[in-house]
Amino acid sequence: LKVSSGYHIVHNDHLQPRGGNFHGFGYLQGTPSQFLLGNALPTGLADTSPAPQNPFLSIVNTPRAPPMPARIACASPPAVCEKSAYRTMDGSCNHLERPGLGVPNTKYGRLLSPKYADGISAPTRSVTGDELPSARLVSLVAFGEQDVPDPQFTLHNMQWGQIITHDMSMQAGGTQSKKHPTRCCTDDGRLVGLDVAHKTCFAIIVPPHDPAYSQVGTECLNFVRTLTDRDSNCQYTGGPAEQLTVVTAYMDLSLVYGNSIQQNSDIREFQGGRMIVEERNGAKWLPLSRNVTGDCDAVDPNEVCYRAGDVRVNQNPGLAILQTVLLREHNRIADALAALNPHFDDRTLFQEARKINIAQYQHISYYEWLPIFLGGENMLKNRIIYKAPGGSYVNDYDANIDPSVLNEHATAAFRYFHSQIEGRLDLLSELRSVLGSLTLSDWFNRPGILEVGDNFDSLTRGHATQPEELTDINFDRQIKHFLFRRNMPFGSDLRSLDIQRNRDHGLASYNDMREFCGLKRASSWEDFGDLISPQIIATLRSLYASHEDVDLTVGASLEAHVAGALAGPTFLCILTEQFYRTRVGDRFFYENGDKITGFTPDQLAELRKASMARLLCDNGNNIASMQPEAFKTVSGSNPVVPCSSIPQVDLTKWIDQNVQPPSDHSILFGKK
Ligand code: HEM
Ligand SMILES: [Ca+2]
Fold first, then answer.
1. Residues 586-612, buried b or exposed e (16+ Cβ, 10 A)?
2. Residue 336: CB within 6 Å of ligand 1?
3. Does residue 190 carry a pLDDT above 70?
4. Helix (H, G, I), strand (E, B), or coil: what is residue 626?
């Protein structure tokens, strides 16, 4: 692949068919693909089943699927906003003139108008009018599943990305813990007849000879469409369908605190400013769910299953670890503030601790994490961050910027980092030697494993040591064939879900987005060659009828990366736009020097010392050492050191100046 200087080259050689010219797979003719049966066949998943008699899927009729559980709630921000020092729970009044911006149950933003097949809401089709190639076929053929560790970044780097994701958006009507109540496929993997399927069904058709699913006769992967403004009683203002997101768009740790006063009340202690934690086996854990079999993949109602500000908390062990760390951090701060300011009431302690916790999290996200993804230079150039030293403010809040999460971001660009997921999770000792490991698909929605023995700390160290998977065209088998498998031999395929979701949301095409991002609009397949290798273009050509059909989530995932960043130019353009809006459109961003909402310069200078390493040191059960840059693998320049040598945020800067400080500050410096 030849690309203009400044771009990395992504190697995809293993994806190429063995020898010969290669023009299409002939699936529609029912001819088995040489390619699928050959190179893409994962070892251990041998396809020994005979070719089906009928190349078309068998369609069975089952009783009508139950209706969607509930219509989407209405966002009801106050008509007039008070200027408070603290964020509201639902994000309302962050924007003072448009109080409903960024609140739950509102539309995603969009950079480009949707491309629905019927112009209104039907999933995208080919420019020929035919259906696009099966999302599963595209997942198998255009993407690999090789295990390529990234020598630079740890699994916490991947995991923090999911934290930010869950803070910023959640598509309406979905579920990730239990089987979706709307069934578009039967339990034995057949398509539910279109005449009886629920109107939100958009099942993924599995191609014949699928290397995994054909072994068990699965022809259909369940897929339920995201609810839109047209499904809502209060959001629809005409025009094509816009999907709804059910969490606050702001980076406000809504996943920790909840997205409404109601959700928050359920997880808040109402004493000492603390959030509810429950003591089990001598440690403090997230409180238990009140609906274990609903919220987790639990067989036994006594299994550990968590309750948090976000229902996805239980989805995977690494996520539950960071949710726990962020929750414990809140209580650590609240306790320290209570010791420094004995006159603070519960509400003040709660809100001040929340404000500090969010500020540290925003700092880590923008200054420690995002530069890895977007490149530090690119961030400075696009004013996503500044070289703001000490306590100096960044006062560029802009009420003209819409902080909503872009559909192109949540449904395509940010999901590219699913490539970083690793299917094996190591358990490590304090000296970082491997004690054992877990297989991801055994532990989806089963967080109880964290509370067994020393697993919480061992997995936390594992995530700080193990490399994440390289950000490339490979998606780990654990999420490509075994996602949420629930004791079954196979599960779903996350890359297929990403592709199908792209069509469900009617995202503009890869070519449209290239043009929007200032790249050359392709007028032929060859024109993609500036960023995509000729071999991959040939693969795409065999799948899609036209170069105009290439889905955004597919094409942009196949681009060579921009130097210093973890994405190609098209995704980088979307991500850059999103994280600019998320910062500049947030009136409460921690670097803002507003007299009422902001911090003092002294406090801001402290907050800028926050780090991922310090968070992990302070909130493990008993973690005594960490490398200073926890998103980066351990190396000579990033060695594991005692926690005591990792900088701390000095909370004495939060002593209320109007009253006498207490004499003993030891609580703040007590830790290791
Ligand atoms: C083990 C780790 C992870 C698992 C199992 C996982 C799984 C999922 C699943 C099942 C969905 C919903 C798919 C659909 O029905 O459309 C989803 C959505 C998403 N994921 Fe992940 N994910 C993981 C990590 C990540 C990471 C590391 C990132 C980014 C850095 C990410 C970004 C996203 C985004 C942006 C969405 C859409 C959110 C929305 O607006 O609803 N995920 N993920
Ligand atoms: Ca949020």
1. bbbbbbbbeeebbbeeebbbbbbebbb
2. no
3. yes
4. strand
The backbone torsions φ and ψ at residue 23, rounded to the nearest 5 degrees and listed phi first, read -130, 85
Helix (H) or strand (E) holding 476: none
Nearest ligand, CA 88: 2
Q: Which region, left, alpha or beta, applies to residue 378 given φ > 0 means left and ψ of -120 to 50 means alpha?
A: alpha
Q: Answer whether 85's CB lies under 8 Å from 91's CB.
A: no
492 lines ligand 1 (CB under 6 A): no
Which residues, including other chains, have CB under 8 Å from residue 213's CB and lie 6 or more apart? 136, 189, 206, 219, 221, 481, 490
Residues facing 625 on adjacent strands: 642
Residue 143 backbone dihedrals phi, psi, to 5 degrees: -120, 145
Q: Can you tell me the distance from the alpha carbon of 227 to that of 184, in angstroms, rounded to the nearest whole number?
A: 16
Distances from the Cα of 348 to the Cα of 253, 273, 351, 357, 651, angstroms: 18, 7, 5, 14, 15
Residues recognised as catalytic: 166
Give the pairing of strands 278-280 and 283-285: antiparallel
Tens digit of pLDDT for each residue in 606-646? 999 999 999 999 999 999 999 999 999 999 999 999 999 99
330 is in an annotated binding site: no
pLDDT, one tens digit per residue, over 115-152 is 999 999 999 999 999 999 999 999 999 999 999 999 99
DSSP state of 258: -
Cβ–ligand 1 distance for 322 under 6 Å, the answer no
Model confidence pLDDT, tens digit, residues 483-519: 999 889 999 999 999 999 999 999 999 999 999 999 9
Where does residue 301 rank: exposed (0-12), middle (13-18), buried (19+ CB within 10 A)?
exposed
Q: What pTM, to 2 d.p., does this model score?
A: 0.89
Instruction: Name the pairing type of β-strands 59-60 and 191-192.
Output: parallel
Contacts 24+ apart (CB under 8 A), 32-41: 32/208, 32/209, 33/141, 33/207, 33/209, 35/141, 36/140, 36/141, 36/207, 36/209, 36/210, 36/211, 37/209, 37/211, 39/14, 39/15, 40/15, 40/140, 40/141, 40/144, 40/211, 41/211
Q: Using the predicted structure, report yes or no on whether residue 25 has a pLDDT greater than 70.
A: no
Confidence at residue 13, expressed as pLDDT on a 0 to 100 scale: 26
Ligand 1 atom nearest residue 176's Cα = 10
Q: Tell me the CB-side half-sphere exposure of residue 587, using CA atoms within 13 A.
A: 23
What does residue 302 show for φ and ψ, rounded to 5 degrees?
-90, 0
Closest residue to atom 14 of ligand 1, CA basis:
497
Distance 87 CA to ligand 1 centre (A): 26
Is there a contact between 597 and 96 (Cβ–Cβ < 8 Å)? no
pLDDT grade for 661, boundaries at 50, 70 and 90: low
List the structure tokens of 228: 């839109």
Atom of ligand 1 nearest to the CA of 245: 40
Contact 582, 391 (CB under 8 A): no
Residues in the chain: 672
